[in-house]
Design goal:
Order of helices and strands of chain A: HHHHEHHEEEEH
Bound molecules: flavin mononucleotide, iron/sulfur cluster, FE2/S2 (inorganic) cluster
Oligomer: heterodimer
Number of helices of chain B: 21
Structural class of chain A: alpha+beta
Number of helices of chain A: 7
Structural class of chain B: alpha/beta
Helix content of chain B: 25-40%
Strand order of the largest sheet of chain B: 2-1-3-4-5
Distance between the termini of chain B: 60 Å
Strand order of the largest sheet of chain A: 2-3-1-4-5
Number of strands of chain B: 16
Shape of chain A: elongated
Distance between the termini of chain A: 16 Å
Largest interface: A-B, 40 and 58 residues
C-alpha cells in the first residue's frame, strides 16, 4: 500500500470538492475516499473537515461510528466472516476459529505480509445457504473448513501469477 | 434459439452461478447449441441454487442445484429441450410444491423476469399502479393504502396508510420546504433477505412504490438507504433507476403529468442501528447514527427537519399491487388485523431455505415442516429464532403459533420482518443468549446507559452463570438487568435485546445449568 502522498491528498480534495454540496454529503464522501484509497488516512480527515466546515473531531466521530470505515490500510485481500445467528446455526463459530488459525490473525487485523485482512460481518443476506463469508467482492455460501482453505490457496496462487 | 435462465441473485452467485453461466455458454458454443442465457433473479428456492431454467412449450423446466461439473451431463441429457431424465431435473418450475403453494403478490415477478429489463417489468403489469396514481389526488392514494390494511413490514407493523396521512397533512417548514420519501433498505436482521430479493429481483417495483408514495404526500425527493453489505442490489438499483429516468417514469414531469419525483440510492456503512428509522435519518444527514427521541415523529420532523415517510422495502414494494389491483384485492388475504401477505424467510439449519410469501395465518410449524422440510443437518430441530437478533427463541411447544403479529405478541415473541432461523439439537442456548448481549455491545448507538453498559454487563453475567459462579444470584441479576434494559432504553435495540435472552431463561433453562466445558470458558 502506497503512502499518503501529494497525489492521494489531491484525490481527497477533489472528492470533497465534487461532493460537498450534496445534501448529507459526509457518508458519500467517506465511501468515495475509501473506495479509491482502501482506507481513510488521518491526513484525509483534516482535508474533509476543512472542506465540510466541521472539526476534525466531528469527522473522526463519524468515521469511528461505522464499522465499514477503516483508518488503516487493508491487506491485499479482505475476508469477512458472518457471525450472525443463521450462520451460527450452521457452524460459523467453528468456522471462525478455523479461519483465524489458518490466516494466523484475529478480527480487525491484517497479516504481517499485508496479504489478508480479516473482518467480522453481521449478516450478508445469504442466510439460507449459511455459513457465509465474503472474499473481497464475492459472497460465498455453505463454507466448510476445506472449502475455505481452497479459497485461500486460490487467492495466494493468483497473487503469484500476477507477478 | 432456446432461452436458458441463470440467476444473478447474491445467493445464486454465492453458490457458483457466475462460473456456471460462463462455462455453460462456452459448452453451448462447443456443441453448437443455439441458446440465449438470460440472467434472471432467484425464485427464492435457495436450496436449489444455482437453479437453471429452460424455456419449453409447456413452461420453464428447472434443474438444480447445478454445479459447473454437471454441465456435460446436462447437455448429454438434452436439457436444452427440457431433458426430464436428468437427475437434477425438478420438472416444471411453477409446479414445484414449494413455489406452487405460495401466494405471491409482492414476489410475483421474482425469478421470472430480467430484473433490470423495463420491457419485462411492463409486460408483467409494471407501472400499472403508477399510471393509476398519476390520475388520482394525493388523498385518494392515501385512502387506498389505508383501506388495504397494509402494516409496515420493517418490524413494528405500524399502519402504513396512517403514516402517509400524517405526512400528507404535515406542512413542510422553512424556505427549503420539502417532503421526503425514505426507503429503509438497511435489512440488518440475521435470517432476512426479502428486501435484498426485492431489490435484486424487481427493483422497478420499489421505484414504482416510492414514486407513488411521493405522489400521495407531495414529496419530490426520495432516498433509498441501502446497507453497504448489498453491492449487487446497489448495482441493480442504480441500473434500474437510470432506465426509469430515461423512460420518463421518474424525474421531472413524469409521463407528461406535471408531477416530479427524484430518487437516489445512499449507502450505509455497516451499522445495525441505522435500521432504526431516526438513526437512519441522522446517518442520511451525514452524522453518527444516534437514535433521536420521539416525538417528534419523522412523519412531522424527519430528514433535514422536513416531513418524511420512512418505510421498509417490503411496505413500499406492496404499493404497486395495491394500486393496480385495488385495496380490497390485497386486504382479502390475511387474518384479523394482519392483512395481505408476508414474505417469510426460512434460514439457518433448514433443509429447504428460501422465501415463502403467504397470507398471514399459517403456523410456524407448517412453515418449518411443509416448506422447510426440517433441519439441514437431519438432526432434530430444537429452537427457532423469529424476527431477527432482537426476536425470541421459540421452543417446540410454541411452534403451533399462527404467524401473525398479535399471536406472536401473545407468546412474548415478535414476527418482525418475517425472518425464521432454525437450530438443531447441537445448539447451546446459553451461547445464543450470550450472543444477543454481545451483539448489542457491538451495535448499540451508545446514547443510553442501560443499552450501552447493560449489554456489556449482560455478557459478563451470562459468563458467570455458565461458569457456575453464584448461579442463582446471577440469574436473578440477569433478570433484573433485562428488565432495566426493557424499561430504560430509548429504542428497541436496548429494549428488545432481552427478548432472546429471556426466552432462553424461560424455555431452555437447562442450558444455563450445564456443567462447564473447556471451550465455553473463552
Ligand atoms: C434496532 C432497530 C433496527 C431496525 N432495523 C430495521 C431495518 O433494517 N429495516 C427496516 O425496514 N426497519 C428497521 N427497523 C424499524 C424502523 O425503525 C421503522 O420502524 C421502519 O423502517 C418503518 O417502516 P415500516 O413502517 O414500513 O415498517 C429497526 C428498528 C430498530 C429499533
Ligand atoms: S437503546 Fe441502545 S441503540 Fe437504542 S438509543 Fe439507546 S443506546 Fe442507542
Ligand atoms: S446470518 Fe450469516 S448471512 Fe445472514
Amino acid at each position: 500500500m502506497t503512502a499518503f502522498n501529494e497525489q492521494s491528498r489531491q484525490q481527497v480534495s477533489d472528492i470533497v470538492e465534487e461532493m460537498k454540496n450534496l445534501p448529507g454529503a459526509m457518508l458519500p464522501i467517506l465511501h468515495a475516499i475509501q473506495d479509491a484509497q482502501g482506507y481513510i488516512h488521518t491526513d484525509a480527515v483534516s482535508i474533509i473537515a476543512e472542506g465540510m466546515a466541521q472539526s476534525r473531531a466531528e469527522v473522526h466521530g463519524v468515521i469511528s461510528f461505522y464499522h465499514h470505515f477503516r483508518t488503516t490500510p487493508p491487506g491485499k485481500h479482505t475476508i469477512q466472516v458472518c457471525r450472525a445467528e443463521a450462520c451460527q446455526s450452521m457452524g460459523s463459530r467453528q468456522l471462525e476459529a478455523h479461519v483465524k488459525e489458518k490466516l494466523g490473525i484475529g478480527f480487525h487485523q491484517t497479516s504481517a505480509d499485508q496479504q489478508m485482512s480479516l473482518e467480522p460481518v453481521y449478516c450478508l443476506g445469504n442466510c439460507a445457504c449459511a455459513p457465509s463469508i465474503q472474499v473481497n467482492d464475492d459472497v460465498v455460501g455453505r463454507v466448510t473448513a476445506s472449502k475455505f482453505d481452497q479459497l485461500v490457496d486460490q487467492l495466494s496462487t493468483q497473487a503469484l501469477e500476477v507477478k | 434459439m432456446v432461452k436458458v435462465y441463470i440467476p444473478r441473485d447474491t445467493t445464486a452467485l454465492a453458490m457458483g452461478a457466475e462460473r456456471l453461466a460462463t462455462e455453460l455458454a462456452v459448452e453451448a458454443k462447443n456443441r453448437g447449441a443455439d441458446i440465449e442465457i438470460v440472467r434472471n433473479s432467484s425464485r427464492g428456492m435457495f436450496w436449489l441454487e444455482p437453479l437453471v431454467e429452460v424455456e419449453t412449450a409447456n413452461g420453464r423446466v428447472a434443474f438444480g442445484p447445478v454445479e459447473a461439473k454437471d454441465i456435460d451431463s446436462l447437455f448429454d441429457a438434452d436439457f436444452v429441450n427440457g431433458g426430464l431424465s436428468h437427475p437434477l431435473c425438478q420438472g416444471l418450475t411453477e409446479e414445484i410444491p414449494y413455489l406452487k403453494k405460495q401466494q405471491r403478490l409482492t414476489f410475483a415477478r421474482a425469478g421470472i423476469t430480467d430484473p433490470v429489463s423495463l420491457e419485462d417489468y411492463q409486460a408483467h403489469d409494471g407501472f400499472k399502479g403508477l399510471k393509476k396514481a398519476l390520475e388520482m389526488s394525493g388523498q385518494a392514494i392515501v385512502d387506498e393504502v389505508k383501506n388495504s390494511g397494509l402494516r409496515g413490514r420493517g418490524g413494528a407493523a405500524f399502519p402504513t396508510g396512517i403514516k402517509w396521512q400524517t405526512v400528507h397533512d404535515a406542512v413542510a417548514p422553512g424556505d427549503a420546504a420539502q417532503k421526503y420519501i425514505v426507503c429503509n433498505a438497511d435489512e440488518g436482521d440475521s435470517g432476512t433477505f426479502a428486501d435484498r430479493m426485492v431489490m435484486e429481483a424487481d427493483p422497478f417495483m420499489l421505484i414504482e412504490g416510492m414514486t407513488i408514495a411521493g405522489l400521495a404526500v407531495g414529496a419530490t425527493q426520495g432516498y433509498i438507504y441501502l446497507r453497504s453489505e448489498y453491492p449487487i442490489a446497489h448495482q441493480l438499483l442504480n441500473e434500474a433507476l437510470a432506465k426509469a429516468e430515461a423512460a420518463n417514469l421518474l424525474g421531472e414531469n413524469i409521463l407528461g403529468s406535471g408531477k416530479t419525483f427524484h430518487l437516489e440510492v445512499r449507502l450505509g456503512a455497516g451499522a445495525y442501528i441505522c435500521g432504526e428509522e431516526t438513526s437512519l435519518l441522522e446517518s442520511l444527514e451525514g452524522k453518527r447514527g444516534l437514535v433521536r427521541a420521539k416525538p417528534p415523529l419523522p412523519a412531522i420532523v424527519g430528514l433535514f427537519g422536513q416531513p418524511t415517510i420512512v418505510n421498509n422495502v417490503l411496505s413500499l414494494a406492496a404499493i404497486p399491487y395495491i394500486m393496480a389491483e385495488g385495496s380490497k384485492a390485497y386486504a382479502d388475504y390475511g387474518m384479523g388485523r394482519s392483512l395481505g401477505t408476508l414474505p417469510f424467510q426460512l434460514a439457518g439449519n433448514i433443509k429447504r431455505g428460501g422465501l415463502v410469501e403467504l397470507a398471514f395465518g399459517l403456523t410456524l410449524r407448517e412453515l418449518l415442516e411443509d416448506f422447510g422440510g426440517g433441519t439441514f443437518s437431519g438432526r432434530p430441530m430444537r429452537a427457532v429464532q423469529v424476527g431477527g437478533p432482537l426476536g425470541a427463541y421459540l421452543p417446540e411447544s410454541q411452534w403451533d403459533t399462527p404467524l401473525d403479529y398479535e399471536s406472536f405478541a401473545a407468546v412474548s415473541a415478535v414476527l418482525g420482518h418475517g425472518g425464521v432461523v432454525a437450530f438443531d439439537d447441537t445448539v447451546d442456548m446459553s451461547q445464543q443468549a450470550r450472543f444477543a448481549m454481545e451483539f448489542c455491545v457491538v451495535e448499540s448507538c451508545g446514547k443510553c446507559t442501560p443499552c450501552r453498559i447493560g449489554s456489556t454487563r449482560g455478557v459478563e453475567v451470562i459468563d458467570r452463570i455458565v461458569n457456575d459462579e453464584n448461579r442463582e444470584d446471577n440469574l436473578e441479576l440477569l433478570n433484573d438487568l433485562c428488565d432495566t434494559m426493557i424499561d430504560g432504553s430509548l429504542c428497541a435495540m436496548g429494549g428488545m435485546t432481552p427478548f432472546p435472552v429471556k426466552s432462553v431463561i424461560n424455555h431452555f433453562p437447562e442450558d444455563l445449568h450445564k456443567p462447564v466445558t473447556e471451550d465455553m470458558a473463552s
